[in-house]
Predict the structure.
Amino acid sequence: MFDLVLKNAQLPFQTNSANIGIKAGRILSISSENLLGAKELDLEGNVVLPPFVEMHTHLDTVLTAGDTVFNQSGTLGEAIDIWSIRKQSLTKEDVKNRASKALKMLMAYGVLYVRAAVDISDPNLTALHGIIELREELQSLLSIQIIAFPQNGIVSCPENQDRLEEAILLGADAVSAVPHLEHTREEGIQSLEFAFSLAKKYEKEIHIFCDEVDDEHSRFLEVVASLTLKEKLEGKVTASHANALLYYSDAYANKVMSLVKQANVTIVCCPLVNTTMQGRTDSHPKGRGITRLKELAEQGVNVCIAHDDIRTPFYPFGNGNILQAAHMAIHLAHMTGREELKQIVNMLTINGATAYSIQDQYGIEVGKEANLACFPVKDVYDIFFKQPKCRYLFRKGELMVETEPERTCWNI
Ligand SMILES: [Zn+2]
C-alpha cells in the first residue's frame, strides 16, 4: 500500500498515461497497473513534469516596480539609479516579505528550485542576511541557492571583494562578477579572476553575469570558458545573458560557443528582461535581445531559460510564470519545431537541474524524491501556449500548491 497514488499521469514525451506510487516521500512505482494508495488522486491524463528550475532571479529587488518611481526610459542606467536609491531603505523584513511573496508566485507556476542573485554592494549586507534567513525558514517548501552578486563591480568597487568573501562565509552558494560593467576590459578580466579564485578557495559555484550588452567588443564569455578550463571547474560555472554573442561575427561566435561547450559552462538566457532591455541602442534592424540560444543548444551546450526579474525597476512585468519566459524564447530564437520545443522543456527542467547540481536526485523515476508538477494540459507542448498555473505541485509527496481549474461561462 502506497501513501499516495497519482492515477492517470501523462509523463512527458510518452504515449500512455501511468500510475505513480509514492511512499515516504519517494517514487516507488511508475506503472500501467492499478496501484493501491492510502490516498489516491486522479490526474485525468494531465501532464506531470519534474518541477521547474528557475536559474536566475533577484529576490532582493522583487516587487519594487513603482516603489517609489517607475523606470520611465526603460534603460539599464535608469534602473540602476532607481535601485541605488531604493536599496538605501532596505530592511530585512522588507526584503523577506517581498521575496516570500515572489517565491509563492514562482511555486504557483511549478518552480521548486530557485537560484537568486543578491546584491552585496551594501556595507551591512542587509538583503543577504534577509534572504539567508528566508532560505532557512522555507527549506521545507522549496530549495533556494544564493548568488553573491556585486552589482557595483569587483575592481571598480574594491570594497566588494571583502563583501563577496563575507557573503560566502555567511552562506552564499555561488560567486558572481559583472565584467562588462567594470571600467576597462582588463579590469573586467581581473574581476573574473577574483571571482574564480574566491569560488575555488571555498569550493563554491560560479555564476557570472556576462556580456549583457549589445556590443561585439564585450568578449568576456571566452574568458569565463577559458578560466573554467584552466581552473578545472567544468560543470561548476554558469554564465547568464551572453547577449553580446549575438553581435559577434559567425566565425568568432562559433569559436566561443565551442569553447563554452568544451568547458561545460551553462548558459542562462533571460528573454523577458533582455528583450526589453537589449537592442535599444541599435539602429535598425534592432537585435532581438536574446543570445544565440538555438545555436548553443545545437552545439550541445547546457542552456537554461530563466524568468529573471519580477516587477522591478529593471523589468516592470513578470508574475512568476517561467513559461512566459519560455514562450518569449521560442519566438525570439525561432524554436517552434516539435524537437526544438522538447529542448525548451529541457531548458526549464533537466538542464536547470544539471546546473543546480541536483541531477542525481531530479526527475520522475523510481527511487527519486516525489517532486512533481502537474499541469492542466494533455500534451506537454500545450504548456507553451496556455502557460497555465500548476494544477498540483508536490514536494516529497506532499501537496504544496493546488490551483482550481479556470472556468468561463458563455452567456451567448
Ligand atoms: Zn537578472
Q: What stands out?
A: The chain has two domains: 2-50+363-402, 52-355. The chain has a mean pLDDT of 96. Residues 56, 58, 270, 308-309 surround zinc ion (CB under 6 Å).
